[in-house]
Amino acid sequence: MSLKPMSTSRRHFLTGLAAGAAGTALTGGVLIGGEHADADATSGPPVADTYPFHGSRQAGVLTPGPADKQHAAGFAAFDITATNRNDLADLMKTLTDRARFLTAGGSPPDLGVGQPPSDSDVLGPHLPADGLTVTVSVGSTLFDNRFGLTSAKPAKLTAMKTFPNDSPDPAWLHGDLLLQLCANHPDTIHHTIRDITRHTRGGMQLRWKIEGYNSPPRPTGTSRNLLGFKDGTANPTGSTANTLIWVNDPHEPTWAHGGSYQVVRLIRMLVEFWDRVSINEQEGMFGRRRDSGAPLDGTTEFDTPNYSADPHGNVIPLDAHIRLANPRTNATADQRIVRRSYNYDLGLDENANLQAGHIFVAYQQDLHRQFETIQNRLINEPLIDYVQPFGGGYFYTLPGITTTNDWYARTLLT
Predict the structure, then answer these.
(1) What gap in Å lies between CA 145 and CA 84, rounded to an integer?
(2) What does the pLDDT read at residue 41?
(3) What pLDDT does 172 receive?
(4) pLDDT at position 320, please?
(5) Considering the domain boundaries, does residue 341 fall inside one?
(6) What's residue 21's pLDDT?
(7) What pTM, to 2 d.p., does this model score?
(8) What percentage of the chain exceeds 70 in pLDDT?
(9) What's the CA gap between 224 and 207, in Å, rounded?
(10) In whole angstroms, what separates CA 194 from the centre of its chain?
């Protein structure tokens, strides 16, 4: 898709900008979520060697927690090219075997000098686990008539809705299967996607891929997004997070219990325009102070905004992002989501504008009750002049791998 010449009007720029691979845009997704993210807000993200692979729920959602997630991430959507249900099961078994090995680390086998090497050696002859988590989710298109899975589709799983302020690009949308890869270093992400695609060739084909990074706290507290604001201050944690994301609805297929609905939104941030806006206007759009992350009616990052004391929005505007995203009422308490987002940088577009932004990732029990309800409140918020959605999708994160004999989607496919 070609790009139109840049205009000095940011509204005209938003209208005219194509959201292709050379001009991608970031989704106007929810940038800030529900309640205090971490008791030790001054510590940076930990660098653990390994995280457990086996369990009733997959790692990479809450382990490690979204407030202290790994530094690097990759999101890769695939089209399934397997032609029948048995081949799909074999693909899932292979994917499980690779994820189990890569997340644990170890020495690849030596196949001898007459064979291609079993590993790329990007990480050296002995693979470090490097805090890698592999989280596997499936899209609604997996449940078409190819594999006889139509009746087993999670009740609320659909193609991602296009909202009024979105600029969707088909090249960056949807997918039968999504891999979320998180690790301590970006070369581990590269190695992992390269290893998995090598071993699953013939069963699935890359549709789109994007890599991101988690900025360290500067100077303390929550990491910042590329608009300079702390991002994820109000993420639910602990028992609150668990009650908001894991599916246990009796109306859902039995196999899906213990999974979670995942939203991925690729959001371009029009940083050149943003940098020309006054600090007062920036803070009014977010409802927080840029330096400390405190709500405009507070003094520290984790202070709770008091909307009842400001009913007319004299301090925190009624259309501020944090106020729309989380009104903090009893009626909206079960609409909160758990976010696990990353920054990205794709270089320049065809007009030499910076092509950078946000990989918005959210987990929840119910796409309609949670993400879509929040997103509908954010339609036409002031931030839409500076963020532009262009890709991603809705996915269902599979239940965990419980034993060494288990494999991804076993209860779905058997």
Answers:
(1) 10
(2) 38
(3) 98
(4) 98
(5) yes
(6) 39
(7) 0.90
(8) 89
(9) 29
(10) 20
The partner residues of 182 in beta bridges, in order of sequence, read 73, 133
Residue 11, number of CB atoms within 10 A of its CB = 11
* Structural domain count of the chain: 1
316: Cβ contacts below 8 Å, ≥ 6 apart: 287, 295, 296, 297, 305, 307, 310, 322, 323
User: 365-395 pLDDT, tens per residue?
Assistant: 999 999 999 999 999 999 999 999 999 999 9
**CA–CA distance, 28 with 35 (Å, rounded to integer):** 21
- Give tens-digit pLDDT for 161-192: 999 999 999 999 999 999 999 999 999 999 99
* Residue whose tokens read 């599916």: 247
Domain span at 277: 10-413
pLDDT, residue 105, reads 97
Report yes or no: 44 and 250 within 8 Å, Cβ to Cβ. Answer: no
Whether 55 is in a domain gets the answer yes
In a domain, 4, yes or no: no
**Residue numbers of the chain with a pLDDT score lower than 70:** 1-47
Cα of first residue to Cα of last residue in the chain, in angstroms, is 42
CB-neighbour burial class of residue 49 (10 A; exposed 0-12, middle 13-18, buried 19+): exposed
pLDDT given for residue 46 in this prediction: 57
Q: Which residue, chain included where needed, has tokens 């997340």?
A: 103
Give a yes or no: residue 128 inside a domain: yes
